[in-house]
Amino acid sequence: MPYLQDLTLRLAMGASQIDREVRDRHANWLLSQQRDDGGFAGREGDSDPYYTAFGLRALWILDALDQSIGDRAAAFLRSRLTAKESIIDMISLIFGAAICELSVGSVVIDDDDLVWRQNIANLLGTLRTDDGGFAKTPEGRAGSTYQTFLSLLCHELIEIEPAEPNRLIDFIGSQAHPDGGYLEIRAAKRAGVNPTAAAIGTLKTLGQLNRVDHTDTIDFLGEMQSDEGGLSANTRIPFADLLSTCTGLITLTDLDAAGEVDVRAAERYAMSMQSPDGGFVGFALDQTADVEYSFYGVATLALCKLATS
């Protein structure tokens, strides 16, 4: 089963255990964020594939993605197939398309459109770097751990294997930091929760999760839990955020080590990030809910339920 589908189904199982009132409040808020064109947007600007993919994922795990919502979102994504998108928006379009098809059967990318799929594979190929990873742009000279993970997921969804997959494994190994975490780029001075999650996700997608001992990685993630209950992005950041909390918990769950953090404290932290009218903010000083952080919030609560059930 593709990584994205497996993760989403697991999150849906956990989300089903969230209190009904909490689920409904956030589902209704997310539904209100769908624009007239069928897409979702960030805190400002027009709809785009990036936020649309997050909106769809959040609604799906809340069991609130019905045929009408999915069809409208699919129509929006189809309208962007021939647009000149950024790399991240193109990858998000593919993620969103997969969700529309899996959840309500609404097809965005025709299975017979092999040319479009190959064009995407060729585009991703322009991001490959000498170190074996994928850069964020074709001009990049060093692989990004996060971009490598996203690119691999994209290859999995379009069903075209990336060139030299063994070099991806070598790249991830080269990003390992002595403290157990992983670097985002080789020039980084310290490991972070999110690149660590991307590294472990890459190994899992490649079926190589048992290739190395993850004891130090588990310890690293455990040390990132702050007094707030959530996880901080790295050792220099003095506060927790929902993104790091979510990705850290996903990683610990994949490593069968969710119990290495105080899950109840993480759940309380996520609940404290709720906006009164629905949706989630990203961190304690944030004041505006958005679609992306609402996915992280719902996903964090779902992961906590899975860990304590």
From TrEMBL:
<dbReference type="GO" id="GO:0046872">
    <property type="term" value="F:metal ion binding"/>
</dbReference>
<keyword id="KW-0637">Prenyltransferase</keyword>
<dbReference type="Pfam" id="PF00432">
    <property type="entry name" value="Prenyltrans"/>
</dbReference>
<comment type="similarity">
    <text>Belongs to the protein prenyltransferase subunit beta family.</text>
</comment>
<dbReference type="InterPro" id="IPR045089">
    <property type="entry name" value="PGGT1B-like"/>
</dbReference>
<dbReference type="InterPro" id="IPR001330">
    <property type="entry name" value="Prenyltrans"/>
</dbReference>
<keyword id="KW-0862">Zinc</keyword>
<keyword id="KW-0479">Metal-binding</keyword>
<dbReference type="InterPro" id="IPR008930">
    <property type="entry name" value="Terpenoid_cyclase/PrenylTrfase"/>
</dbReference>
<protein>
    <recommendedName>
        <fullName>Geranylgeranyl transferase type II subunit beta</fullName>
    </recommendedName>
</protein>
<dbReference type="GO" id="GO:0005968">
    <property type="term" value="C:Rab-protein geranylgeranyltransferase complex"/>
</dbReference>
<keyword id="KW-0808">Transferase</keyword>
<feature type="domain" description="Prenyltransferase alpha-alpha toroid">
    <location>
        <begin position="156"/>
        <end position="305"/>
    </location>
</feature>
<dbReference type="GO" id="GO:0004663">
    <property type="term" value="F:Rab geranylgeranyltransferase activity"/>
</dbReference>
<keyword id="KW-0677">Repeat</keyword>
<feature type="domain" description="Prenyltransferase alpha-alpha toroid">
    <location>
        <begin position="13"/>
        <end position="150"/>
    </location>
</feature>
